[in-house]
Amino acid sequence: MKDRIDQLVAEVESLKAGSLEEVEQLRLKYLSKKGLVSALFDDFKSVASEKKREVGQLLNELKNTANQKIDELKSGFDTEETTLSENQDPSRPAFFQPGSRHPLSIVRNQINEIFSRIGFTVADGPEIEDDWHNFSALNFTADHPARDMQDTFFIATNPDILLRTHTSSIQIRTMETTKPPIRMVFPGRVFRNEAISARAHCIFHQVEGLYIDKHVSFADLKQTLMYFAKEMFGENTKIRLRPSYFPFTEPSGEMDVSCNICGGVGCNICKYTGWVEILGCGMVDPNALENCGIDSQIYTGFAFGMGIERITMLKYQIKDLRLFFENDVRFLRQFSGAF
Ligand code: PHE
Questions:
Q1: Given the CA of residue 165, which atom of ligand 1 is nearest to it?
Q2: Same domain, 189 and 256
Q3: Is residue 253 part of a domain?
Q4: What is the per-residue pLDDT across 299-335, written as a single tens digit (0 to 9) for each?
Q5: What is the per-residue pLDDT across 284-306, written as a single tens digit (0 to 9) for each?
Q6: Are residues 168 and 77 in the same domain?
Q7: Residue 310 belongs to a domain
Q8: Using one digit for the tens of pLDDT, what is the confidence trace for 222-235?
Q9: Atom number of ligand 1 nearest to Cα 305
Q10: Nearest to 253 by CA among 243, 240, 266, 267
């Protein structure tokens, strides 16, 4: 009897099955009422009583081994039936939950794309700058009061090195290395030592535009900005240019767009004026051209710079700039699907 049990244990342990039906056949063969294991239990009755305890234990072990083996073989095959509901498509690529782009990235891409349609290419520059590219070459002389307009983060050990306060530094880098004609936009992150509030942050984003060629005029600047405003905010958008001052442009201006939230009637976003300021601009000052080795007798150009946060707030009616930096998924998820 013991030999028979050992033999069956060895047999059961080496069982293999190629399908669920085969597993079921094996279960019947060993474990059903008329199976080989059950037959041994029948024989157990005739075992001498002093051996019953030992043999009984072995028999139970055999039964457990057989049960385990059958379960193990079964789990090798997926027994769960999958049913397709009406709107499931099994030929679709594997599904995954995509994240959403940050609203600032969406708007930055849109700005790049609007300008690339009229021949502007996109370039970048370093966030850690030197005084020359952020200020001096842009016609901010050493003691120019306009340096105070932008509260600058300097590197403590070297006042010549700073975090760029505007993307105009990339204008200089580009003009130093590229021969006109130049038609480019420069998106990037900029830094100013400002208190954080609903309307200001110490880190924000700008896109700078630069166009240098022979005979570039203020009319070209105005036309380009009007095209941009209509593409960005809609065909009915109006623009308004007000005189302003930047050391690196002459003449300089600031551009307002008609408030796209109230349609110009007046609301709290436009402070009941019907207009919202979105950018600074002007004709590149001849000094800035000469500082970069471009002959200002031959070439003229225009530049403009806008804050991406401001444009995004207007476009999506976002009232607090801090939302852009908090990474609250409830805010960010609202932009899923947009590129
Ligand atoms: N750099 C200016 C600013 O940050 C904006 C600007 C860019 C103005 C280009 C004129 C021309 O305020």
A1: 4
A2: yes
A3: yes
A4: 999 999 999 999 999 999 898 999 999 999 999 989 9
A5: 999 999 999 999 999 999 999 99
A6: no
A7: yes
A8: 999 999 999 999 99
A9: 7
A10: 243
Which of residues 25, 60, 86 is at a domain's end? Answer: 86
Q: Residue 97: inside a domain, yes or no?
A: no
Q: What domain range includes position 47?
A: 2-86
Q: Which residues pair with 4 in a beta bridge?
A: none
Q: Single out the residue in 86, 114, 140 at which a domain terminates.
A: 86
Q: Are residues 79 and 147 in the same domain?
A: no
CA distance 150 to 327: 27
* Cα 305 to averaged position of ligand 1 atoms, centre (Å): 5
Note the pTM of the prediction, 2 decimals: 0.72
- Angle, helices 20-31/52-75, rounded to nearest 10 degrees: 170
CB atoms within 10 A of CB 42: 10
CA 280–ligand 1 middle distance (angstroms): 5
Say if 95 falls within a structural domain. no
Q: Which atom of ligand 1 is nearest to the CA of 166?
A: 4
Q: Residue 143's domain is classified under what CATH number?
A: 3.30.930.10
331 alpha carbon to ligand 1 midpoint, in Å? 30
Question: Which residue lies with its CA nearest to atom 10 of ligand 1?
Answer: 281
Q: Which residue ranges have their beta carbon within 6 Å of ligand 1? A: 166, 168, 208, 246, 249, 280-282, 303-305
Distant-in-sequence, close-in-space partners of 79: CB < 8 Å, separation ≥ 6: 20
